[in-house]
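User: My collaborator and I are trying to settle a disagreement about how two of our proteins should look. Neither of us wants to argue from intuition anymore, so we agreed to look at predicted structures for both before our next call. Could you fold the first one, then the second, and keep them clearly separated?

Assistant: That sounds like a sensible way to settle it. I'll keep them separate. The first protein:
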Amino acid sequence: MNQTNRANRNRAVRKSIHFLTGIALFGLTFLLDHLALLSVIVAGSLFAFASYGSKSFRLLHNTSNQSLGTLFYPLGVLSAFILLYQMPVEYFRASLLTLTVSDTMANLVGRIRAGNIDFQPFREDKSLYGIVAFAVTTLVIFYVLLPDSTVWHYLILATLLAIVFEIFSWRGSDNLSIPLGSALFFLVMDRHESDLVFLILLVLFAGVGGWLLFRFRLLEKEASAMAFFLAVYLTGALGFSWVILIVSFFVTSVLFTIVRSKIARKPSALHGRNTWQVLANSVWAILFSAAWLITGDEILILFYVSVVAAVTADTWASEIGPLFHRRCFSLYHGKMKPSGINGGVSMAGSLAALAGAVFIAGMAYWLFGPVIDPGLVIVLALSGFLASFADSLLGAFAEDKLERWLGSLGNVNGLTANDLINVLGSLAAPVFLILGKIIAEII
């Protein structure tokens, strides 16, 4: 079997698995309650990530164009279900079938060659026939399943947005953008009583903001698309307080990067952050905010603030520390080393980390009002600061091991061990927060 035929066979197998998985999950929505469904989706997502890179599941994951679609798929389904957890299940079914049926129809019809037109709006080839098939199938699904199917402007706008999420994909990212984007539309419209003006302005400003981040090389193209979704999610589903906090982290981090570049006379220090870097700094904030959507538990707001404080503290320390010290103390070697090494700490960097954590905790006190009292501001600031120190410890003792592990996977382009360190380090913040609350109650 030649390489082309093998690639086509593998593609057909993966598409079949995705289609059958989606149909099976659609059937389960009629049999299981929300909590049981969530358990099934989480278990499937964990399996997808655990099996990634395994030789036993090579046929499921390996692709000729290094697509990450098999990872985006469970993330898309899981994110859509979490966002729509409190809404009628018909909305999740619509998002699921758009990914399962509409995307499959686009793939099948798009292979018709006579009279077809191929184009590349982002980085993946798309076809005119495929887009038309996707649009028609999506409109039918929304009309049949959605409670708002009699409101045609709602249906048409939902379909148009779904088409956009299908077209602008990268390495299989439409497996995430289609269900996530549809779910965001349903949730924002529900939260804002189908206010089309609010939705249009939100999408417009988020879109322009994402484009500017890419235009000025602050984010790579894919990362700017992720920033767009994050802005729509935090603003439309949660509110301005949530988005202001994480925007404060990003803006200050960029400013310090620019200042460091100017002082050090190294323009190359300012470069577009990729998707993994953005995700590493926001993944826990996204998960804790999504958990708050489901439960409404105020402790999740504190967890959200603590992880934003942690990534802010770590970034401020990384950018400011080397400006004042050419050498730092290596936690791994136990002696002074050149600044910028993994697991290095300095006085200026530590003070910057503390300042960053205090800045975010103070902002949260202003933004979230009754949820955060002055005592909690101190606990939140300390939890973010200590988490940045945990990040340094992980960098000193675990980064090389994680680098070798990533090398064994072979095809997760752009993901670095430092990204994983940031994810693990920021997760320490909620742990320190809980400890701090316990100590404060004892005292």
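The second protein, kept apart from the first:
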Amino acid sequence: MSSVVVINTGVANTASMLAALRRLGASPTLSNDPRDIDAAPHVVLPGVGSFGAGMAALHQHALVEPLLARVRAGRPTLCVCLGLQLLAEASDESPGVRGLGFIPGVVTRFSSPAAVRPLRVPQMGWNFVGPWQGRAGFWAYFANSYRLCDLPPGAPVATADYAGPFVACFRDRGILACQFHPELSGSAGLELMRDWLAGSGGATPAEPPSAHAAGGRTPRSGPPGTLPRGARASERIRVIPCLDMRGGRVVKGVQFQGLRDAGDPAELAALYESQGADELVMLDVAATPDARATAADAVRAIRRLLSIPLTVGGGVRTIDDAARLLDAGADKIGVNTAAVRDPSIIDSIARRFGAQCTVIAIDAQRDRASPRPAWRVVVRSGTELTTLDAVEWARAGADRGAGEILLTSLDRDGTHAGYDLELLHAVSSAVHVPVIASGGAGGPEHLIEAIRAGADAVLAASIFHDARHTVADIKARLVAEGIPVRAENSP
């Protein structure tokens, strides 16, 4: 078994990486001891959160010099997401903070010209990486607000495209740096990690014949410092099964009432991934009413089998609750009731773990007494109606740092009557972050309607639990309607 040290910076959801390494037969350990970083055959530098927080953690544990010595020597090191960005000289995210400086360039925020539709930031979902030598490329999972657009000198680079090309990954001898999360990128990501563990550093991006004349560097298709445009623009719609949990079992009801057993969470998670699910959401629907925390054991059981992203919510009241779930295997944390009670929890989670880890879950009920279309926020698993306007609350949550909105129509939940399209359109038009449509899916036609109303992702539960449709069936229907989705081995 390969010995791998995963650097424990305190700003990474390391459980997903540890689980992936174990599935590959490696023997990973967490450490922030500089001696371990120096001695380990393989080292992983993961990271989420801000550039400044990442560098502060490295300095705090005296890891900057041993890590720099390691990457300069080309010793096997896998740098993931923020880990890639920390290799640069600086980032616009944290002005005045110096990066490791292993590669030249500054990390910048995603932006789009004013003339086009405002870009959803963070980039949250699957993007096509390539081309790669011997194959057209592969799908990888990204969750980032910032990116590197400067080519690392002499390093073979693969790009992706999100309002313009950016560095998706590069390698330099034993160094493999990925802006995406290979541990959450399904079989393609695990294959990339397996190659790195075996000593190949990952597949080499395809180079035209003229590359050797350019001194071994990947030729550029524009002025110096620019990247060749990727194979495809991204923005693939995500299909997300939801596991509503109670007492360690998946349950389903109507408007959170009349809950019935729907199966074992780990078994269903593995099934849905095999069908092509892009992510999973697990919500403990009884945690808040029962005044307890979400069961971390269920999260661990799911993570052992899962190689796609997992969002977990229910009973998250403090940042320590969020940290506990991330340590158990969650990749994103959903907050609902606690955020309504004290909105500063959104700021706290986003500041420590990053916007891409922070999901504000909104259960909304139509206000039929209002003279105009309006919805009120409902908390405590649908049992307590507030006076808070759902659209304004979504906007406030995004402004506080939430990187995604999970929007559930309580009126439609479990009814199979379709999503509340008016609610969905109102919220997606009001925020700059991705919106997941939830509540009411009865068939593919409802998911199609939600996407056309502005959803960036569509969530469903009973249509999958009851085997009325598979994820693969839904995706095939979306493709037939001209809606772009992730499909294995297809750009």
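Some points you might bring to the call about the second protein. Confidence is low (pLDDT under 50) at residues 201-233. Residues 378 and 385 are 4 Å apart (CA to CA).
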